[in-house]
Amino acid sequence: MPLNARVAVLGAGSWGTALAMVLARHGVRTTLWGRDTAAMAAMAEARCNARYLPDSLFPDGLAVTADLNSALSDADDWLLVTPSHAFREVLEHACATGHRPNGLSWATKGFEPGTGRFLHEVAEDIVGRYLPLAIVTGPSFAKEVAAGLPTAVTVHSEHEPYADQVAKRLHGPGFRAYTGNDVIGAELGGAMKNVLAVATGVADGMKLGLNARAGMITRGLNEMIRVCHALGGRPETLMGLAGVGDLVLTCTGDLSRNRRLGLALGRGIPLSQAVKEIGQVVESVQTANEVMRIAEKHGLDLPITEQVSRVLNEEITPAEGLKALLAREQKPEYPPGLFGS
Ligand SMILES: NC(=O)c1ccc[n+]([C@@H]2O[C@H](COP(=O)([O-])OP(=O)(O)OC[C@H]3O[C@@H](n4cnc5c(N)ncnc54)[C@H](O)[C@@H]3O)[C@@H](O)[C@H]2O)c1
Ligand SMILES: O=P(O)(O)OC[C@H](O)CO
């Protein structure tokens, strides 16, 4: 597929808009599709996503539409950036138009709700295995990307030439896109860090201190590595942008909605009120349950994820979750055999 391909970005929330702006800034012919006709008309008029990214004007050449058929009619490549709960639905609608791209990538972080399946598995269900697939992930707050602040992401695909094409289109001044071929590790890192950001936010909201924050992040990484190992991903992927990079950003950066949810819960604000006040997608609310579904299937002990999931299901308070974590028995830092030793 040529690098001057035309790209359709599906999902006009903060991240879809920011990535469409990156592509258009780099001269890629880009159409941003969103489902809300009035919102897309307002964006076309103002040349700005006033709801999510009010301070950043669209570059010339970025087309916006609420008409899915016209967005896809001449698109060579599709980039899905919906929340995980809308991933299947939007991809099915896109395929129902009869149009087919040469490649499909996504920047959604999460699992299919209710099944714990990876989004690459959902994508394969719908488009089959004929298309190259890629995930775009890494430490990247939409607001900073839209403002043109320096950012590094990574693009993983089993089809390495496709990862290269997607990354080359995104890469430019101020936006670095690396590549890899570990789809499982990359997807897992982007999904699990949201759950661990809630845990760290809770600890900070409860004013447990900086030692607790660092301990939570590091033990959270340990949980990620154990899941990655069990699912056939490569632990070293989690040492890069898709793992440690995004984990540190989301656990410590107050722009993170997942961290802000944890902060609110740790300060005693009820879940529904906290989610309402954030007013945007908070992927951890579903992802925690899906990671626990995976943990049960593979017989994994994930204490932090388990307590976050119980807090988000309102079975326990954050204080009870903390007490359970601190009461755990002493043990080796890594389970035997995790790194092959
Ligand atoms: N915002 C970020 O900084 C950022 C960065 C990296 C990854 N992500 C990931 O990108 C994904 C999207 O998040 P976001 O930040 O853009 O969310 P957002 O809350 O800013 O916007 C969500 C958008 O999804 C749309 N949407 C919801 N249900 C839909 C449906 N059924 N069909 C079509 N559109 C639908 C909404 O209309 C809204 O425009 C998430 O998985 C998130 O984890 C976000
Ligand atoms: O705001 P969050 O918590 O969804 O995080 C946004 C991005 O995923 C950070 O890389």
Small molecules bound in the structure, each named once = nicotinamide-adenine-dinucleotide, SN-glycerol-3-phosphate
**Structural class by secondary-structure content:** alpha/beta
Q: Kindly provide the name of the CATH class of the largest domain.
A: Alpha Beta
- CATH homolog superfamily of the largest domain: NAD(P)-binding Rossmann-like Domain
Number of domains: 2
Number of strands: 10
User: Number of helical segments?
Assistant: 15
**Unreliable residue runs:** none
Measured between the Cα atoms of the first and last residue, the distance is 43 Å
Named CATH topology of the largest domain: Rossmann fold
User: Which bin fits the share of residues in helices?
Assistant: 40-55%
Overall pLDDT:
96
Largest sheet, order of strands side by side?
Answer: 5-2-1-6-7-8-9-10
**Cα-atom radius of gyration:** 20 Å
> What is the CATH-assigned architecture of the largest domain?
3-Layer(aba) Sandwich
Element-level helix/strand string: EHEHEEEHEHEHEHEHEHHHHHHHH
The coarse silhouette is: globular
